[in-house]
Amino acid sequence: MTDIARLAGVSTSTVSRVFHGSPLVNEETAQRVRAVLNDSRYIPDGLARGLKSGITNIYGLVITDITNPFFPEIVKEFESIAAERSREIMLTNIDFHKNGMGDSVRRLLTWKVDGVAILTSNPDRRSMDDLTANSIPMATLDRRLLGPGLSDIAVDNLPGMIQGMAYLDNLGHKKIGYIGGLPGEAISKHRRGEFIHALKKQGFAVRSEYIKAGDFRISGGAAAIQELLVLNDPPTAIFTANDMTAIGALHAAQKMGYKVGEDISIIGLDDIAFAEMTTPALTTLRLSRPRMARAFFDALDYFGSRPSSIGQQYTVKTSLVIRDSTGPAKVKKNQRSSR
């Protein structure tokens, strides 16, 4: 910056003001400084400036695995918002590190990030404590817990599930199954609870044998639907905890000889890009990743210069998207209603 000031014939403080858009510099001087900046292709040392001020303008983004189709759109939107708000992001994948989230958080601490968005369903408590100890605020996904420096973005699946139940009811379905997430995880418990709530609201019976655990992955969906379809009285339609589970269930059902959308109906959750590419295309509950990314960004911006203030709860709702993996129920003659 000293060289820029010398070439423009001004002080370094004037160069700094021009670079940051201060109105305190007259236009003639500002134009002269900008010309020198452009000619020299000057790039400021943002990290050094951040270390001096204590504000790096960097947010950390912790995800499970970038190869999961759920995450790329969120990362893209997060980066777009960062550009709007003159911030940078540092992305870290838990599955790519030997010690998981612990390694991810240590990397973010090294860079003195201003806040961390944690997009994993089961964050490591010790790693979160490390962030708190360093006065770095966080925003978590669907944990429904708030605290000093801790906000949360909840996914409200009820609107979409209620729409889905009514839709299945109109198609003649009475026996509805569910393939959930990993047992014990908070997000899995929430989604299972939302499914049961929507089931009861529509007047359907809750049958424990129709509710199976999955793992949010294709393999879990495939294993669970095989258990459901070999029951003496199997469900005619199945909700799943996410689209990856639904895709696994869809493929497994087809391998078992079922025509998805005719013999069995399947509904996913997320509306990832692949949902439109399956055969048949997947009916699902759409979760807007752009809205989610903006909610995470807003949650971190909320803390500002108050990293230890009590966080806020944000909510993103789902909605039903009808495609071809659902269709009218095949009802056997003399079959009793499960209501």
Question: What would you say this structure looks like, in words?
Answer:
Residues 1-53 form the HTH lacI-type domain. Keywords: DNA-binding, Repressor, Transcription, Transcription regulation. InterPro entries: HTH_LacI, LacI/GalR-like_sensor, Lambda_DNA-bd_dom_sf, Peripla_BP_I. Pfam families: LacI, Peripla_BP_3. The protein is of the alpha/beta class. It has 12 helices and 11 strands. Helix 1 (2-8) packs across helix 3 and helix 5 (72-84) packs across helix 12.
Main β-sheet description: 11 strands, mixed
Summing up helix and strand content along with how strands pair, one would put the structural category as: alpha/beta
Let me know the average pLDDT. Answer: 90
The number of strands is 11
- Overall geometry comes to elongated
Number of helices: 12
Strand order of the largest sheet: 2-1-3-4-5-11-10-9-8-6-7
In whole angstroms, the N-to-C terminal distance is 75 Å
Our estimate of the beta-strand percent is 15-25%
Helix amount: 40-55%
Stretches where pLDDT is under 50 for at least 5 consecutive residues are: 333-339
Q: What letter string, H or E per element, gives the SSE order?
A: HHHHEHEHEHEEHEHEHEHEEHE
